[in-house]
Recover the amino acids of this structure.
């Protein structure tokens, strides 16, 4: 018997409304409209239960990098579930998929990142890092070093600890976050600044806000700095070229651990295997999730540098931390199939040399539209900002909901992107063809024109 019953769209919406609480959702608003029911997907397209075909410009939630319907990933899950659907890696046990995956992950990353710890999600991975960072400094005889510096408007997840690392005001306001020992500094968002500095000067200034915070807190109390190479959920904030080298210098100078959150940028999205490679930084930790399995099953994890792992292993004794699903066999088998596919098909180089530059040219040309203020894109991770006036910049009133109007027109035109306020963000699957990129951009121009008409009313 099928596990999922065949039901009408209307019935599904009714049941959804009655019993299902959604993540990051205003339920009253949702119930007034009803949910979109996504019932199947293939390639770069998702299908709504009404039959509408939608080009998925967000790869699900920044994760379905290999695209939908990849048979070898599906087969890997099926085979592994038959062989060993679950076993743990506590209590001196291990299993082939986790072992194989840890070894493959090592091959893909920088030489000093030799070990991984598995989790179930990006949020869990960042929780793990907080535990490891603080344990590391305790073992180093510096138990006062527990403060972690993050950035305003960062997103590092939604558990109590990961939401504390995140720099989202609205999240902090609910439930009394951040927890103690986590502080925030400026984000490297040049377009959102008063633009009195050049991007390069601004990048240095943003990095030096970390140094100022270290001095304010006291260097002997600061354990680590965490940042997304390019901020994703915050609106695809691409830092000026001067930013990351200066952050690396500061971390080195004060002996602070550097955490590069690769949950979105990991496994190829920027046209390099990791954001740390793209920006030439040398992190002590890299949390990952999403693209490691292309979202086919949940899996997260943490790359741990030799600097930290050697101390934890040699001096740490038992590390009292782990998850039931750390290194879940089916998830690891799916990750192996997914990463082997991405490597065999050379999809990362394809982003760097082919579809990335192809999309970039068209994406940057959006700046010619009267509503588009800033355009930015690296690899297959792009954003543009809707503005009322370009120079000097005048933004739309929040109540006009320009971003939402655009997003809805775009959806009607058969393409899905996300609106973060009036910033429109896009992260399509790595298999996007040239003609699918054209389709995406044609719909974008059409939706921009319709948005302009609406906003002029
Ligand atoms: N770090 C980063 C950089 C992320 O983008 C997480 C950690 C947390 O991962 P999990 O697997 O716990 O969700 C994320 C997640 C959005 C959106 O609206 C972004 C994420 C999750 C949900 C929504 O852009 N990123």
């Amino acid at each position: 018997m099928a596990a999922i019953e065949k039901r009408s769209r209307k019935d599904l919406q009714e049941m959804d409304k009655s019993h299902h609480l959604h993540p990051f959702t205003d339920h009253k608003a949702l119930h007034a409209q009803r949910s979109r029911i996504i019932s199947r997907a293939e390639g770069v397209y998702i299908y709504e239960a009404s039959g509408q075909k939608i080009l998925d410009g967000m790869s699900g939630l920044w994760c379905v990098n290999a695209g939908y319907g990849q048979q070898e990933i599906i087969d890997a899950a099926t085979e592994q579930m038959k062989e060993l659907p679950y076993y743990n890696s506590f209590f001196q046990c291990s299993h082939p998929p986790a072992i194989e995956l840890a070894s493959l992950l090592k091959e893909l990353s920088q030489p000093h990142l030799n070990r991984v710890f598995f989790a179930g999600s990006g949020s869990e991975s960042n929780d793990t890092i907080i535990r490891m960072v603080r344990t590391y400094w305790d073992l180093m005889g510096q138990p006062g070093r527990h403060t972690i510096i993050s950035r305003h408007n960062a997103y590092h997840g939604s558990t109590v600890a990961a939401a504390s690392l995140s720099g989202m005001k609205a999240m902090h306001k609910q439930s009394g976050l951040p927890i103690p020992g986590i502080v925030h500094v400026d984000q490297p968002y040049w377009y959102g600044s008063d633009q009195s500095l050049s991007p390069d000067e601004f990048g240095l200034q943003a990095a030096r806000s970390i140094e100022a915070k270290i001095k304010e807190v006291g260097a002997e109390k600061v354990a680590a700095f965490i940042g997304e190479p390019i901020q994703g959920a915050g609106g695809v904030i691409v830092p000026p070229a001067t930013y990351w080298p200066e952050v690396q210098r500061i971390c080195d100078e004060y002996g602070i651990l550097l955490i590069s959150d690769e949950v979105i940028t990991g496994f190829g999205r920027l046209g390099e295997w990791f954001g740390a490679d793209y920006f030439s930084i040398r992190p002590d930790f890299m949390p990952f999730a999403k693209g490691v399995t292309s979202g086919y099953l949940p899996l997260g994890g943490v790359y741990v540098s030799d600097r930290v792992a050697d101390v934890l292993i040699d001096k740490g004794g038992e590390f009292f931390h782990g998850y039931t699903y750390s290194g879940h066999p089916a998830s690891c088998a799916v990750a192996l199939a997914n990463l082997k596919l991405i490597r065999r098909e050379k999809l990362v180089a394809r982003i760097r040399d082919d579809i990335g530059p192809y999309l970039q040219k068209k994406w940057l040309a959006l700046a010619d539209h009267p509503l588009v203020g800033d355009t930015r894109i690296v690899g297959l991770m792009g954003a543009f900002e809707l503005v009322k006036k370009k120079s000097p910049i005048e933004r739309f009133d929040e109540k006009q909901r320009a971003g939402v109007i655009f997003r809805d027109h775009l959806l009607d035109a058969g393409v899905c992107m996300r609106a973060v306020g009036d910033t429109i963000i896009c992260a399509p699957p790595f298999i996007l063809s040239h003609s699918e990129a054209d389709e995406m951009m044609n719909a974008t121009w059409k939706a921009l024109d319709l948005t302009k008409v609406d906003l002029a009313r």
About this structure: Residues 61, 121-123, 126, 155-157, 228, 232-233, 261, 263-264, 289, 300 surround PXG (CB under 6 Å). The radius of gyration is 22 Å.
